[in-house]
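User: Thanks for the earlier help. One more: Integral membrane protein. Can you show the sequence and predicted structure together?

Assistant: Of course, both are below.
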Amino acid sequence: MLALRLVRGSHPLVQLRRLLVAAAAAGVGFLLLCTLGYAVGHPEHSSASVLRLLWCALPVAATVQFAVAVARTDPATRPRPGLSSIGLGPARLTAIAATSTAVACTLGSMVALLVYLHLRGDITGLPFDGAAADLLAAGQPLPLAAALTLLAIVPVAGATAAGLALRPRTGAPAAEGAARPVPGGLPWGVALVAVGLAVETYAGRGGGAGVALPGRFDGSPAGVLAGWILTAAGLALAGPGLTHLCGRLLQTARPGAVRLLAGRVLMDEATRIGRPLGVVCAVLSGTLAAATVYGAGDGGPAFGPLTGLGAGVVLACTTATLLTAALESRQCRAHTAEALARLGAPPTVLRTAALLRAGALLAVFLPLTWLIGELAALPLTA
């Protein structure tokens, strides 16, 4: 009940972020239910049903990542002086954050179930002249236990991930101070990107069995998809190191106060900003590769409605996670901005430093995204 009262009394922008989490959970829940509908309507294609279920793991992971980012920036779950005396210590606040995440995700899952049942015609008859009847197996009974089990994946995973991310840590200041050497994932990330591109090239030349995706967008060799997953993991792992490198580059060649401030902020926030930035880079490079490959086809529709929905959920969630991480970084730097204001620094200093940080990140990550996308599409277009 306390978690529900905190949710109800939050700021409108906080409520908006929770509604976005619910919307993402609704999209993923609808994809999972459509996968169940395909399995019910095509019992002879059990392997294809399993593959469709596995493809839903990407939207699920993106939604859980976004839910954790929203929970981290929730002011209702931030430790404040005096709360421990009324029983709201770090452990209780972590439980409240996990409960709030579960409530938002459950709301989205229930919306997905209602929309799915409406499109199947189980509530008010078949809408749109039965256009979605075959896709959703409208003529078959829906196994309720299986549907509820699939809909529980996102709330359970989101609440668990939020609880683990916000759990109390002993010796947090020492650990935070130790985390300010250079992030150590850059060499491993570069190695994973190189291995992923090599696997894609080898699989693209040698062919392989096609892996069907929901909707169209099928026929890609399984090795190419495995290589892209390795490349995406490498970009996510290398993101903090590349962000730290951007901060160092800003401070080279006799920097002034603004460049020093911008570079130091990037170095301090490399882990918080770099990882979601690497994930966005991986998603955009994969989208660019898919558009390049299927844009050079016969002109037919390469993406079905479910594939488009899944890709939209992944892209929206990863972008929203990056923006939420930037908001969290700004909240953590609030005391620094106040100290600079007390010292008489003009407001343009902070704005100029923010523009320098954004420009440095774009100058590094945009060409990298384009390069990885072109290299990933090259084996399939050659």
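User: Great, one quick takeaway?

Assistant: The chain is about 75% helix and 0% strand.
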